[in-house]
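From the shared-data thread, chain only:
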Amino acid sequence: MTTTLSAPEHAQPQPPAPARKPRWVNPSVAALLLGTGVLYLWDLAKNGWGNDFYAMAVQAGTWSWKALFFGSLDPGNVVTVDKPPFSLWVMGLSGRLFGFSSWSLLVPDALAGVASVGLLYLAVRRLSGPGAGLLAGAGLALTPVAALMFRFDNPDAFLVLLLVAGAYCVVRALEHASTKWLVLAGVAIGFGFLDKMLQAFLVLPAFVLVYAVAAPTSLRRRIGQLCAAAGAVVVSAGWWVAAVALWPVADRPYISGSTDNTVLELAFGYNGLGRIFGEGRGGGGRTFTPPAGMELPAGGRGFGGQAGLTRLFGGEFGGEASWLLPAALVGLVAGLWFTRRAPRTDRTRAALLLWGGWLVVTALVLSYMSGIIHPYYTVALAPGIVATLAISARELWRGRANFTARAVLAVMLAVTAVWAFVLLARTPDWQPWVRYALLVSGAAAVVGLLFGADRFRRLSPVVAVLGLCGALLGTTAFTLATAATAHSGGQPSSGPAVASGRGFGGPRGFGAGEPDTAVIDLLKGTTTKWAAAQSGAMQSAGLALASGRPVLAIGGFSGSDPAPTLTRFRQYVADGDIRYYVAGGRGGFGGGRGTAGEIQAWVEQNFTPMSVGGTTVYDLTKSVV
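Structure, as tokens:
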């Protein structure tokens, strides 16, 4: 029997859960999934291409299977995105099936959100019942950063789906010490690596801990099963890494962000240890330096403010996913305390170790990362927060006959309502009634819990409803505002339109800009392999997406990757593969140095500039030499 959180040793045990599901469960789950689908899919096209950088790669993948496989920025396969391509595979296949458009680009991410909510419900329900599962699923759906990322084309949407799928497989493995399910968990994490590299591994400590502690089998067998799961991680992540390593270098694109054109260096360098310890180096090993006119926020070059325990609650991170974080931490501590004398295989403690471990490890890493970090990374934290909160709240509510349980639950509710009030007060002119309404309802529920009103049959539902309003009204309002606001660019942030300027450049984020319509019309009339070339994908992506023609992004994302080389670029021009060179690219964070700078200088010396609209363009078929 599952140990009830609120029951000390002398308390009466709780009755076993009924064998049949209550009638309200299936309609409630259907409503949860339908509501999530509406929230994430409604008016999705307002986000346009989302992040142009990834959209450019998806577009290339609809033209070239090779570009799809490698995650190339263009169908000529010069340079890749600076991430592995799993999310690009899904969006690219959608574009091939339905035609490349904003809808075919973004719908797979929205459906990944619905699937994540459904899988989270199933995972929590199996150990803690349908009530906790529904609360966890609703909590994830109503987390602002989830509504942001599940309506966007960054890799984070599929990362969350794969991590939740891995957790579900661990839960299934725990039931009967199943090797099959544990290996499937490893497969999910391996593909998570192919989506966002080492960030997928942040949940592994929790997965290993819970299985090592709570699986109902011998220690020797548990160790052997964990080794098998580790092998599954290596194989499911390593096949693509090996394919790239074995592919002839001259016949594949440059691995953007790496210093030696390898996936492993990208994983452990720029996208790995560099993110954690602050060695923020991009392609070609150049240090991250913002382009002229871009100012980084106070506190660091990583877009996330000062590193430390308070980062997740700060102005840039707080509104993304921290709404229920204080209560989840209180519930985790209380839950582990109340289950300290439970049997090794206790289901409630296992659930807390799984989701609480996910929460703690991910929160600490995000808090202390010294390299490049974006507030939307917290979407990977959201499942751990809401599942931990739902499990602990459910057990405390079950044991509310005990004053200690009621008191802890009241504390969780109080800190949630107060913290939501603080977060909403950061945008004081936006719907001020919300923060006062949740504070009043939360206070009423806290009083009801402390004075035992919830123990009366007719008052118990009232206290529960007031408590849910106090806990979820703030995050729900912020989530609805997020879904109603258009977001695009490289630094999207959640919340209403008045709050969306927290990142670079407001709703579009840094590095974004509308291409000149005259230049677009010029590119549409080309028939060459590449309509144009421009330094850095931050700008050239807009040209490719608006014109529907391939554009060579010199130097990859930031313009600092050594691809193509000047020699290779000159050969492209000699072969008639590139029609125009468009000036004004961001040479990215490379500052116009390196290969991108060499190519720009060569073009300026050998071709005559012309003004198209407000943009300087060079016709590479008309050399002055």
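The longest strand covers residues 615-623.
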